[in-house]
Amino acid sequence: MAVMSYESDTCLLDRWTEENNAIVNKWKQHNDKGDCVEQGSRLLKSCYEASLQLLQMIQGVPAVHDRVQLELAVVYNFCMFSFSQTQLTEAEILLTHSLERALGAEGCDGPPPSNPPVFWRVVLESLGPMSSLCSSLLQLLCVQWAFWLSTVRLGHILELQGELLSLFEGLGLDERDDTRKAGEEGLETSAVRPALVIHPRELKDLLHICTVIAQGAELLCEGRWSEALTILQRDPSPLTPRDLFAQIHTLTGLCLSSMGHPHSALQCFRKALETDVRCVSALQQSVLVYRQLGNTQAEIQALRLLHSVLMLPPASQPTVASGPLIAPAILLPGQSLSSLLSVPSALSVLHCLAQKCVLHGSVSEGVEHYLDLLAALQSDQQMSQVLSEAPSLPRLPELYLETGSSLLMAQRPDDCLVLCDEVISKTVDLLPERLRLEEPLEDPMEESGHDSADRLGLVLWCGAAYLLQAHCYSHLKDWKQAVTLYTRCISLLMKVCVVQTAGCVKQGLGVRNLQRLKGLALAGRGISFIHRDQNREALRDLQLSLQAASGCASAGLWLTEVLWRLGRRREAVACWEENQSSSSPPLLQDAPLYLLDPQTGPSLDPADLRGRMEEFTKTQQHQGLPL
Amino acid sequence: MAARFAVVETLAEFGCPSPSTAAQIMWSGVDVFICIGYDEVYVFNTQERKLRIVLQFPSPVGHIAFSVDKQRLYAVCDSDSVFCISLPSLPSRAPTPPSDQSPGPALFRVSSDFLAVREVGVCSVVEVGGSEGTLVTVSQREAAWWFTLYGATSYRKLTQFSLPAVSVGLHDDFKENGGLVMRPSLACIYSGDTPPQSSSSKSTTKPSLSPSSTSLGVFHLFLEPLLFKLLFGVDAAFVNSPVIVCGLPDGRLCYFPSCLPGQAGPRVKVLHNLEQPVTFLGTSTGTYGSQQCFVAVGQWGRVVLVRICEGGAGEGGKVAGFTEGCVSGPVVCVCAGRKGLYYSTGSDLLALDVSGGREDDLSPGESVVVGHGERRGQGQARERPSGSGSLQIPVSLNVCRVIALAGPSHNASDCVCVAGIVQLLALSLRGRLQQLTLPNGPEGGGAPQLSSSQVGQRIKDLLAAVGDVCERASLLKSTIQSKNNSLRHLNQVLNVCCLLLANQRAGENCSVSEKPIRCRIVAKWSRLLQRDSLILTCVLNNSSPYVLERGWILCVQVVPLSHPLHEGGENVSRTFSFPVQKLEQSGEMEVSLPVATAGDTFFPVTVSCSLTYSLQSLLGPEELACLLANGDLVSCLGSDGGCFSLALDTLTVDWLDALQVTTTTPPDSDTKTPSVYPITTSMDMVEDFLCSHRSRGSRRGAGEEGKVASEDGLFSASIKVSTELLGAALGLEAECSMGPQGPKSPPLGVCGSVLRWLLSQGPGGDNWRGRGDKGGQEGSVVYAHCPGGHKVKLAVKQVSVGDGSVKETVEMQVECSSMTALCGLHHAVLSRVLTLLQGAAGQQETSMGVQGLGLRQALQRAQALYEQLQEARIPEAIGLGWTTERTTKTLFSIYRELRDNPLLIL
């Protein structure tokens, strides 16, 4: 290249221009045809490599005024291709290098400033007046803008905001005729003017809307909701792609919801969904708003919708004007935006949906969701899904236990037994002989406490599996087997010794669950004993159960019953009244599904009990005996 | 340190490996993939021992790995791209081999079309099995280690996790290594009971037992489920998710389940820290008496073994025990054998047995870390043992400058592998591909140290095995013996068969004495239980060279030639069988059988002797029972049960044989008792005789009949034979020649001899019976009892016949009160004479004419008899009412006439 003779200069210019236009045409033809994606990506790659080669050739010879425009156009194309290849750093360096060469060619010597906005100001000031280069410079400024956006350098954009906006006007007016001419005359003018892959105006619109979104997201994360709202509510261009439009709506809704207008926020989310059906983040946000509002049915509906949308096969890329060259995702890599719009994985949505269903009435639907969830986990299908990093699924044994308890609720004790067997077989060989816990347990997220919490978890899972199996047997009225399994659960729990550190009142979640499990197991065994007419053992267990955990509602009732059966009627009445007075349900919000009071199994008619108690009280009062 | 010497054989030579990249060799069937850090990856065929393909990549290859099914090769190039090459699609030969040379290696240019994944800073890859498969890459960028999961067919990015990098000492290491870039080592570990789906190569090797290794992510590892759960948590076990373990150059061993959705806590967890670059991850299989363990080896010689062990006193249960030890470093490369590791320090190759540690060797607190959580809570110093106390001492194999290892070859499918010999492939610092043959790898070399109880058990086992073998051998021997016996037996049987069949074919005319196996019979009266009965003594004589063995049966069939009518059409023959025990050469077997009692008069009887053999006797009793039970016997031996019968001799017992000679003098007249047994004269018998004699056409004059029918009911019959003829046949020439002294006094010698001959010649025998000896010498008249109880007079005298030319004849006369007996005796005598004369026929010529010998008289008699016969028949023919009695009488008298005046036999 260095030995290129001067005569061939113009010839070179023509050849390179031709080469550039050939690349661009190749790409455009493909884009018009709309070939398959794989072919497209291969073509993109070859275009990228070809333009890189061309650029390297051009930059191999000293910059000359005649060729500056060509070089800038080639750089523009190359940068566009580089977006698809995620080779942004290299492209940005080449871009800067080209501009420096252009400055040199036009005689503007002096070391260029290192600060990019300042550098650009210098470039625009020194080269802008030349009409031949003006449009090329504006195009490259767009590229630079895209680079800044995609690397979240919003500061630079803000700094140059004035120039960007003013020059857009120029881009819109000056270039329109030229490009139209170039576009219409096609190859004839190509010898004169190097072709461009994308019209800069299209790029500009995209960049503009993306900037709005990025800025809004940043402000939202910083808590400057009203400023964010102002930015987001600027009139968007009508050419905005649908998904970006939906994102703007979603972000607006987020602002409103943060500012305490949940209903307005829901309106925005609805608008977002109307704009783009696949806007899952809007759905997710409306789920959260419904949950905040306590509207369970609406929340379940939204969850269902969210899950079905997440399970849809990924849609082909929406055809934006820029084609697949620049995807908005490349321009919007911001951490704050992605955290705002993050959506849990389909599996965790499914889990949430199942849990809500089971807890709020539609048990059979919940069971189906749970079984779907387990099936999805067992299969390899989940590997092919894009896994989200959002940690929202519980541990797998817990998931099994929740499924088991919902199966029991749905009157399917046999299936429940199978699931619990699975949990037991997986955990039983890992159980410690003894476990000594010191309260309070360290935060399980900290590493040091991890081990004993893990071991407590194993005991809880295995114990809960025994408990569920015992529930199943008592549901099936196999009292003997039920007693055996309750006993197994209790003796397992007895291995854990909790040492209360002085001054600690609040119990950790694990220990609370342990106590609750113990209470449930004892109560269950007591109830089974009653059915086997072993009333004394039943009395002992029920009393122990109430000591261990006061939350078991049925245990109190059954205690009354067993006292009554044993002929200790006064105590029964006392127990009844105590039960009535402290009937406020204890806080069970954080108790897992499988540690809730069993819904199935033997039940007492409280009305009957009440009748007996009141009658007895009356007769006592008639006889004038003190209670 | 016991040193052994490995045999080194150089297979090929490549260029010096790049100093900045760890060289790699990997097996795939018979091919070895060699990566020495430059643009090229070599595929060397160990069977043909030559370079097969050169894969040329666009940039230096830093790391290669196979897919799960070994059908694809992943290559990490230039720290930013991963290429994937489908191995079956590679050309097997150079496209145009020069005709004069053997085809050289094919060059395969890997273009950018093969690019699978582009990722900045990618260091290592491993593929996880599954329905689609997942490609896991680990890369280093932006001060973090990034683990990225891609779909293995679409290379779509699935998810990504990161782990902050720790930059301690990396630069120092870099300098110390002489510029060698350490890469993270990746391994994919399955719980022992979950074989990966859809992998063809795995199906050939039993997962939990295969000594799979992963120096740089080659194979998949299997851990027993309990250890798996202890190390990686229970959740991964619930969904059977494989776990990716990564040993980072900063010493951390971190892991994450490959398919488990997000859960609370960091996704990538740290298992342990070796505090030196991790060179190797692998498992040892749980062999005899030792547990399976997970092994990690650091670059400077630190070895971590993870096994299951009992928890501490506080909690009990099972925990994962970490044992750390040190071997002298640096560890350049490692590969796993069946029981241990082989590693190279650059100056020596050593074998380290890691399976030796038994559970009781590990006591928690000294060298074992109880649970990784606690360990992290407490200091690191406590549980780290000083020195290599808990490890066995490595054994030097005396191979230096090895920088990459692969094998042992019993891992690979088709490799040359002799039992007990381990072969490794090694790459030397100079780029030589070497095949190392270890005399006895750690698998066999380290003499198995068994406890005394184990030794005792082994000895017991071996002795029991010896006993078993001995028992089986003796059983087989006896089977062979019995089969040989059967064959020998069968051979004898066949020989006998051939012999007898040949005899049969040779014709009946060969004389009895010439037969190698023959039978003869003596009839004898004996008195049993007040009753006389005729006993046949049958003697089987074996003069053949063969032995008649057990299984042969002598069958004697007694068939009366004629039998009384009242027994009807039923077969009155009787068969007697006598099993032959063993009849040696020139042996005899004598059997006796009763033929008749005193009253039986159905002589003559035919006695047929035959030898029968049953193939069943070849079989032992058990086989026979077995065959009978299965019902196969019929199909095997045929419907007759495998019997075949070979005739020996057929003999006749006639009236003469059945005679009881009482005296040569006439008995008292009162001793002549009337027949106690009714004479059952049968027309059949008469007709027999009629038929037999009709041909001779002899007739007697009708007028003489009254004279013969004597007054006291004695019937008589006579046969005349020319003395000359008879004498010649009997060998009495001398007596005959001096012969005709006077008709009234015939020489006693001739008559006595003839009488003796008549009485003594037993059926089939050529011995003289001693019965008539007493009287035979003195007189020519014998009195005897016939089987019917009647008295019989047998007289032989010499008479002259003829008018002119007198012919000397011997007349044999039979007199008896019973017609039946008379007929029988006459027949017997006649048949004897016939037999005798037939036998002698060839020797003599009849010289004399007989014209004058009263021929006319005889003819007249015959004429008269014929007329009488016709007369007797006419009424019957014309249907007139002659009584049967009268007809009978008439015929009877004709018959008597015939008997009494026979023709002379010349």
Automatic annotation (TrEMBL), chain A:
InterPro entries: FANCG, TPR-like_helical_dom_sf, TPR_rpt. GO terms for biological process: interstrand cross-link repair. One of its GO terms (cellular component) is Fanconi anaemia nuclear complex. Pfam families: TPR_7. Coiled coil: none annotated. This is FA complementation group G.
Automatic annotation (TrEMBL), chain B:
Residues 359-389 are annotated as: Disordered. GO terms for biological process: interstrand cross-link repair. Coiled coil: none annotated. Transmembrane segments: none annotated. This is FA core complex associated protein 100. GO terms for cellular component: Fanconi anaemia nuclear complex; nucleoplasm. Residues 372-385 have a biased composition (Basic and acidic residues). SUPFAM superfamilies: DPP6 N-terminal domain-like. The gene is FAAP100.
